[in-house]
Amino acid sequence: MSEQIQVQHNPGTHCFSAVVEGYKSVLEYRVVDAKTLDFCHTFVPDELRGKGVAAVLAKEALAYAKEQGCTVIPSCSYIAVYLQRHPQ
User: Fold this and answer.
1) 8-85 placed in CATH 3.40.630.30
2) What's the CA gap between 50 and 10, in Å, rounded?
């Protein structure tokens, strides 16, 4: 992928998003309590699959959780697999 993926975080809607090649991808989360986030849904359009967009969203969302001192519940299957592959 030649363009840099820019991730936007909207705390009001509990969503990380990126628009790439005109298509919007999202990682949605729920606030369980002050120190717990449930990463519940990741969506990447078919046109962008396999281009690393979901991984960039996951990385940004996990960095945010760490910065906030939050524990993450990976109820989204993509996030669960991402965490297995990237345990740090």
Assistant:
1) yes
2) 25
